[in-house]
Amino acid sequence: MLKGLRLWHKIALLVACLLIGVGIPLAIKFAHRAPQRLATPALEDDAHWRELRLKMVREQIASSGIQDPRVLAAMEAVPRHAFVPPEWLSQAYDDHPLPIGYGQTISQPYVVALMTELLDIQPGDKVLEIGTGSGYQAAILAQLTDRVYTIEIVEPLCLQAAERLKNLKVHVRCADGYYGWEEYAPYDGIIVTCAPDHIPQPLVNQLADGGRMVIPVGPPGSYQTLWLIQRKGQEITSERIGHVLFVPLLRSAEDLTP
Ligand code: SAH
Questions:
Q1: What residue spans define the domains of the chain?
Q2: Which of 4, 17, 154, 208 is 20 to 30 A from residue 229's alpha carbon, by CA?
Q3: Which of 247, 251, 257 gets mutated to test ligand 1 (max ligand atoms within 8 A of its CB)?
Q4: Strand bridging mode 207-217 / 187-192
């Protein structure tokens, strides 16, 4: 049957047979091997993100003096890029805060690690955070204990963080954190990630015996002092840690600057 065909016709026929017989089965085989993508590819915790995260811990956190292996492990484990708005994804593991909307920020990774180390959380400790923001700091706390409570005053941020944190079983409340969360007090650790101009007395009252509070205090718009407050019985001690820059603690979401 091939006898009547010219040579180049035969070659074309051979190539077509090869394509159908080998190419298509191979394509089907490799299509099955292609990695499964999540609905939101940016949130996929693939090797690329993990590499950036390990580099962040090595070069920005461990090298800056954070030593607690549990804190370093928590910072290695939590995918920070999942807490950053899409337009800032490329900077998710950089050494600075990033905007999260409503004039608020996700804190610099080093500051998150420093404040977490200062809290010295033990498994089973009850910890309260004021200023949930993106939910990143709460997710770090949840690596260290399974009793994490967090309060956010800006409702849309609060609801978004609650959704992100639901698998970690973090308790999220949308309210003014100045008053703490009386219902679950006392807390072994309290971390405040927005800056009041004085230490809120309700938070001191909700600190357990032996409890530690890490809080930036100072005027809005300029550097604040980071304090470590400790309760031993009725005695409250305070230690100055250094200077930090946080957004102010608001007393109402109406105080948000547009
Ligand atoms: N810990 C956050 C960073 C928070 S930025 C993170 O990991 O992303 C500070 C947050 O504190 C902002 O989201 C701000 O809305 C919130 N905040 C300000 N005043 C507050 C208040 N009185 N009570 C609770 N949250 C407050």
A1: 97-249
A2: 154
A3: 247
A4: parallel
